[in-house]
Amino acid sequence: MHFTDAKTLLSRYNGMNIYRGCAHGCIYCDSRSECYQFTHAFEDIEVKQNAPQLLEQILSSKKTRFMISTGSMSDPYQPCEKELRMTQKCLEVIEKHGFGASVITKSDLVLRDIDLFQRINEKAKAVLQMTLTIADEKLSRKIEPGVCPSGRRYEVLKAFQERGIPAVVWMTPLLPHLTDTEENVRQILEYCFDAGVKGIICFNAGMTLRSGSREYYYQNLDRLFPGLSAVYQREYGNSYEINSADQHKLMRIFHEECEKHGVLHTPQACFSWIAEMPQRYEQIHLDL
Prior knowledge:
globular, single chain, alpha/beta, 14% strand, six-stranded parallel beta sheet
């Protein structure tokens, strides 16, 4: 782990990454791709130590409130957050200024800040985005070794549901020959529906592989599932999109079940809802 002072923090779409790199060790992680131009080892977490102060400066000058998201590149609740509390400090700044917040995570450490999320949700809007793709707990521990298993993440979703804090689940990636089964999809959907999630994001039944992430994924397939990387190379070559042979069946089940339960089920619908600030809060701000 190393520390740096960031010059900028929010992207043009109001996203931020407080950490750069991750210790979770998920074998399918796209953030390892060369296109993201990491200049340090992925496990050597870069910490933007001035993120809370920078965010304070940015939000102090804004007249219109909006949603701020974090976690698209690196999990904001990875292990170092337990001691550093950088994500927590940034959420406190967001609450202070009355903005909305959305986090993408796989970690139950987010429960530490559930009171903070509740206060943000009461003032503006808070959204928990939880990645949930592997129902089999033993398989989850192999593929996502540094995070809590799916059953625990379901418990986190239930805890947020009890507080009235909305959630969106990322049911992606679905790994060919490993998690692209009807049984797995239906179990994840059952978790989601029981936890009352607002939406589920699923980019087809498959995954993406790019230079950098592909090599890491194949190395771990060779270690955990000998012979499987050769199957991938034979079936997909160097394709970017790696879709399941059962993609059409699985996506039909996914869309039909979400429609039946009144859950948003296209990426565009989910992203639009997440970014949307409730009008009543904007009106309160204008009246002030």
